[in-house]
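ugh ok fine here u go
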Amino acid sequence: MCVFCRLLIFLHCTIWWTVLFFHRREQDLIQMSVQGAIWMEIYTWDHELIPPRQIDPMDYTPEPTVTLDHDVTIEEVQEYFTNYIVNDSLGIIANAHTAFADRELEKAESDACIELARLFSIAVDFPKTGVPAVIPTRLHVKEYPDFMEKLDKPTYESHRVIGKLFRAVKDIAPQTSCIKSFTKEIARRSYDRDMEIDGFEDYIEDAYYYKGEYDFKLASRMDYYGIKTEAELLGGSVMKMSKAFDKRRDLEGIELAVRSLKKEVRAWFDEKSSKSGCEADDIYAKASAWYHVTYHPDYWGCYNEGMGKDHFLSFPWCVSDKLIHIKWKSNMRKRLSELSEALRLI
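structure:
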């Protein structure tokens, strides 16, 4: 193949990624980039993305710790534990900061927000220092902005950007969206033949079994937390959940449950197929089968009968790296075919 043709293929198939760094005086670009695999890339520095001014961080000096001149007694441990529960004010301070930042003219730079930020640091250190954060009466919130959704408190309509965005998306939340679920008609229109790999039929039976197992486990987690949609559970943006749980407090537990399920499913994928009859599995044909039993219209509605759940779509994306590779190879074949045809006509 001539050099010119190779260059055309390279330019046509290369994917460009953009990485935006927020540069601070205290940390250079090298320090910010050491954690990621971003070598051998091309970078640019756009002066229009640099903030017009930088605000110095708060100078916070921790409160002195409470010291004792004797060994700690069990009664003191009990008292400390009780005080910790009573004085756990992190959530109250965080909500107050959000409310004052929305209401005050100087937003997060207002005196009230700066004072609340200092109190927040004291509250964070409370388990170590034993010094509680005392919120003065003047920093108690009288009214909350509507985007905080404090339905049991006095509220007002926020005119900040976040308030406008909140009201813009409020009416298109999942429970009021015109698209309720992945229907069989959508499956017919959206099924991608490019995702079919030679030999995927050999893995259909195992894929169908594992899809049923995955859906049952996913639905169990949704029911446990009272989460209505698959997207909320997997994306971490929970709109509403059981009253027994709190979005702020239990989000980490939800994420852990999702990661645990994905890890289990990945182990299923790595197991040798019981039906392929081959010494080694074709991992891409297997991934193709997982996609097929999820997205093909013939399999729509086969898994959650009687459960009152939508048709779940996330199962094959537990091996997303394999699906992405299948689609990439398919696109490459198409592009090479188009290029070959174009060169033939020259």
